[in-house]
Structures are given as C-alpha cells and as structure tokens.
Amino acid sequence: MRKTERHSVEGSNALWQMYKTVSFLKVVKNFLVIQLARYTPWLPMKNWLYKNFLNMKVGDKTAFALMVMVDLMFPERITVGNDSVIGYNTTLLTHEYLIDEYRLGDIKIGDQVMIGANCTILPGVSIGDRATVAAGTVVTKDVEPGSFVGGNPMRVIYTKEEIEQKNQSKFD
After folding, report:
1. Beta-ladder partners of 107
2. Pfam families annotated for this entry (predicted)?
3. What's the distance, CA 122 to chain centroid?
C-alpha cells in the first residue's frame, strides 16, 4: 500500500483547486527549473538545480537521464540515494489530484537503484537499495531492496534472494 496523505475538497474537482494547495509562483519557478534540467545533458548541473532550486534530496553520483520529469508541485518530497540511475523520460509524481480529493506522498529511492526508461513512480512509494525497475513500469507499491520488478501492473520478477541464487549457480 502506498503511503499518501489524503485531503478532501468540495466543489469542483481537486485539480481546479490546485492553487489552494500550492502557490502559483512556486509552480512557475518549478516549471522553469524542471524544463531546464530535463534538457541539460550535464549531470552535475541537473543535480545542482534539483538540490538548490527544488529542495530535492539527491545523492552523490546519481544520474537523471534526459527528459526525466520530476513532480511540478511538490518536488521537495523526492529523495534519491547515491549512485542511482533514473531512466529517460521517467516521471516521479508526489501528488495526485482526483475528483473529490488530492493525495500527497513522498518518493524514496535508495542507493544504486536502476530505473529504466519511461517509468512512472507514483506518490508514497519507496524503492529499496540496489533494486531494478524495468523500462515502462508503473511503480504502484514499494519495491524491496535488491529485487527486480517490471510491468503494468508492476510485479516482482525476481527477489533479491532469487537473483543471488541465480548468480551463485553460474559459479557452481
């Protein structure tokens, strides 16, 4: 189960009320920084932009590929550990605006995590250290450390133990 905070709204759908939940000027600033970072090929510059202008927690040697889209409204709720790779055109969402409510949740990505291209990470999800997320996966729940997941809906392809056993059998 994802860990999200639920906030009810009355009247029109929650997206029409978004500027009651986040400042318009914050969204404009975030949009400009995110668009610059999406097209910047220099990894240290991307991480600097994310840390200094969006208040994201980004570890050393983490690589955000071209076109990664971080959450526009609440990017400060994203934490990525050291030496991780976030694949091309992946989306990291920390909010969901629905009809009668909106939800907020932190995204926590561990150390040495590999996330393939075109993935969507939903709010309230944690991805453990050394996990691998296959390209095109919609991450709807937590990913255990060292496991390999993929698909839509996401499923565990190999657990950490299965991967270790498979690797060990290569040397026997």
Report:
1. 78
2. Hexapep_2
3. 7
Q: Name residue 127's amino acid.
A: I
- Residue 31's identity, in one-letter code, is F
> What are the structure tokens assigned to 90, written together?
């992946």
Q: What is the pTM of this model?
A: 0.94
Q: Label residue 35 left, alpha or beta by phi (over 0 means left) and psi (-120 to 50 means alpha).
A: alpha
Residue range 5-171, CATH number: 2.160.10.10
Report the mean per-residue pLDDT for the chain.
Answer: 96
Per-residue HEC secondary structure of the chain comes to CCCCEEEECCCCCHHHHHHHCCCHHHHHHHHHHHHHHHHCCCHHHHHHHHHHHHCCEECCCCEECCCCEECCCCHHHEEECCCCEECCCCEECCEEECCCEEEECCEEECCCCEECCCCEECCCCEECCCCEECCCCEECCCECCCCEEECCCCEEEECHHHHHHHHHHHHC
Distance, CA of 66 to CA of 46 (rounded, Å): 10
* Res. 148 pLDDT band, cuts 50 70 90: very high
